[in-house]
Amino acid sequence: MTLVGWLQISLTLLAVLLAIKPLGLYMSHVFAGERTFLSPVFNPVERAFYAVAGINQNREQSWIAYTFGVLLFSIAGFLVLYGILRLQDILPLNPQGFPGVAPDLAFNTAVSFITNTNWQSYGGETTMSHFSQMAGLTVQNFLSAATGMAIAVALSRAFVRSNMTTLGNFWVDMTRATLYVLLPLAVIVALLFIALGMPQTLDGSFTATTLEGAKQIISTGPVASQEAIKQLGTNGGGFFNVNAAHPFENPNAFSNYLGVFSMLVVSSAMVYAFGQITGNRRQAWALLSAMAILLIIGIGAVYWAETSGNPILTQLGVDPLQGNMEGKEIRFGPAGTALYAAVTTGLSNGGVNAMHASLTPLGGLVPMFLIQLGEVLPGGVGSGLYGMVIFAILAVFVAGLMVGRTPEFLGKKIESREMKFAMLAVLVLPLAILGFTAISAILPVGLAGLLNKGPHGLSEILYAYTSAAGNNGSAFAGLTANSIWYNTTLGIAMLLGRFAYIVPVLAIAGSLVGKQKVPASAGTFPTDGPLFVGLLIGIIIILGGLQYFPALALGPIVEHFLMLSGQTF
Amino acid sequence: MLNQLRPAIVLTLSLTVVTGLLYPLGITGLGQTLLATQANSSQIKRGDVIVGSSLIGQNFTSDKYFWPRLSATSPDPYNAAGSSGSNLGPTSAALVERVKGSVESLKTAGATVAIPADAVTSSASGLDPDISVDYAMLQVGRVAQARGLSPEEVSQQVKANTRQAVLGIFGEVGVNVLALNLALDDLKK
Asked: What ipTM describes this predicted complex?
């Protein structure tokens, strides 16, 4: 680790910190339906859409109707995307003449993109036509993110309203998130990305004659437009097989900083918008502090582990100065690589600028553990916020148990109905992750996909289901996941991780919105101070640690000690 | 809840048009007009011939060229139509064997110092355009001999083609192998 490296990390995070307030404020105006400087452009578009769709934008929905809206919209998105992938051979913009995508892969990919996971069982440049990338994948990069934001906004409203039954209108919230927030940001970031070197062309590839006279076919395409929303919407599905490690998808250190910034900014600003909507900005900063503390520890841990290098290679005469360089690119440097690895997993982005499979055991443990902590650091756009609110509810419940009072959060009493739904949501992840990992680790069809042997093989499986259920999308890509077994089970894990979480969250919102808001009294546990931040961090770590420590001990932790003793597999 | 079918269908299709066609095609139009070099994949031409992209590494095996990092793409290294890393874990015997082989061949070729890690590891994309200054310096002797130049002349070119960090902070020091080899080829003309 170097001072300059930490400076790069700190300045990138500082830029995010500075953007949180203005963007969060703007977003809170958008979701309140107020006029913003973009209204002259988008208000007519929005109204036209509502007119054709038969939406009355002033008519709000109960939690059940809101949930149905989310589910129907996701199903519609799935069907359109699945259709595009299957039929890409007869659709336009297929310069490389790729065939239609196979059924199991199309299922996996469509589920992956509607759940904001963006797991890639495929290599983009060898599988997807430009039409699939643009009208299929890019669209869901917007819409799955906008859906997450809408749900978070609905939950936020539940804390300010008393004795009501409605949470807002899903169609309006989702459309506004897309048009007013994600689209303008994507235009700006995409143009900056092109300026930094990213291609944006409808050509499929070109052939270069190398200096030694060989032919090199170089795949290219509309990369920047997809990369921008991939980062802003915390999607992570890359244009190319190796994602943001590809020089076209991440040309230099500056596109790397901008990529990390874009991943973090909307998700973090969403938390500020929560504070603004609920009228308690201190609460937003408390949640952001808890997220930042855990995320920065994660960044530091990857940075340390990767610069410590691989002692087995040092033994062979390799200079340990550069640290572990297998599966890494020169241009990002150790700090830029560690920053990306931790942020992409603390968020539910899942893009990678290094091959996580080749990280050191502890360097690989951190991204896996950050996903297992629940994708709340600061998590996916919207999904991170509602995940964090669930943890906050658990934290006040634990605090309530300690002092023997009914727990409250933001003036709403947390009672058994909310706790049941919160536990339901929290338990989905370990069930999907550990359940599927255990099955795959004993079935021949699961073991057939492994590249690495020994504990690293278990890590490949564990990482895959962690990533899928956490809706992250990064991978220990040694695993050959493009098989019927993995495409199907990972698809199911993604669906559980998304929808078995969303429904309880909206049920909690529906329950809270019907309650009277109680004013704070002397007996109220303050949830916007350092004590609560500490408690919240404790809850997140204890839950994650208790659930996953045994599995992690058999994978990365034992591999770390075997690496120190020089054992190979 | 059938009354929500219409918004689901209409908004899915209309937002697909906006975000899946108007947005990427609009960005393509702007990119091609305002930033044509980058938008067209940063191609490098010599005369009418495209010799590569300044962002994409290419394979070099001749002694007179600087060699890039190892590439795990298949079927050939530096296949820019199918990016891939090795995905070998830190305790992989295959990784250790491969590194051992690379270290030995570099030592046979005369390397006396500790081997820079990037010289014996494969990059994430298999297309890394850069190598470290240490690895470039390790190759100066071989390239100079093959080209009949003095080592000073060649290391001068390495220095001239080394990318420095902006303000000493932002960005990573590295040498673009294709740019360096092009500079060496241009030298003799």
From this structure: 0.96
